[in-house]
Amino acid sequence: MFQACRTLIKPLQSGQILKMATVAEGQRYDFVVFGATGYTGQYVVEEVSRVAHHDWTERNIPLTWAVAGRSKDKLLNSLATARKETGLNLENVAVILADVADQDSLNRMAAQSTVVINCVGPYQVYGERVVRACIENGSNHVDISGEPQ
C-alpha cells in the first residue's frame, strides 16, 4: 500500500507533488485549493482543513486534498498559517506547483483532483485556462476568486 503512495519528488517541477500525500497512485485528491496563498485562498485552506478534520474524526470519512500555486515557500507558509489558526496537523496535505501561465502545469494539477477550488483571480483574466485544464482532465471546477472583474 505505501509503495503505491506518491513520494517526495526532487527536484520539484511545476505540477509535481512536493511531499508525501495520502493519495495512492492513480487516484485523485478530493480537493485541490489552487491559489492557496492569496487572501481568498488562505481562507479556503483554513476551512477545508476544518471540514477534512471534521469528516475524518466525526464521520470516519477521509478527505484527501492539496494546495496548489506558483511558490513552494508561499504554499508551505499558507499551510503553516492554517495550522496555527486551526490547531490541526496538516502534514499530509500535499503541495502542487501550478501556474496559470503554464497550461501543462494546470493540466497536471487538474489530473490529480476530483474538484479544483480555484481561488486565482481575476476570473476574467485567468479563469478560462483553469477551466480548460479541468475539462480536459475530467476534474470539476469551482471558482471562488472573489475578484470583481
Automatic annotation (TrEMBL):
Signal peptide: none annotated. InterPro entries: NAD(P)-bd_dom_sf, Saccharopine_DH-like_oxidrdct, Sacchrp_dh_NADP-bd. Pfam families: Sacchrp_dh_NADP (PF03435). SUPFAM superfamilies: NAD(P)-binding Rossmann-fold domains. Residues 32-145 form the Saccharopine dehydrogenase NADP binding domain. GO terms for biological process: glycolipid biosynthetic process. GO terms for cellular component: lipid droplet; mitochondrion; plasma membrane. PANTHER family: SACCHAROPINE DEHYDROGENASE-LIKE OXIDOREDUCTASE. Belongs to the saccharopine dehydrogenase family. This is Saccharopine dehydrogenase NADP binding domain-containing protein. The lineage of its organism: Eukaryota, Metazoa, Ecdysozoa, Arthropoda, Crustacea.
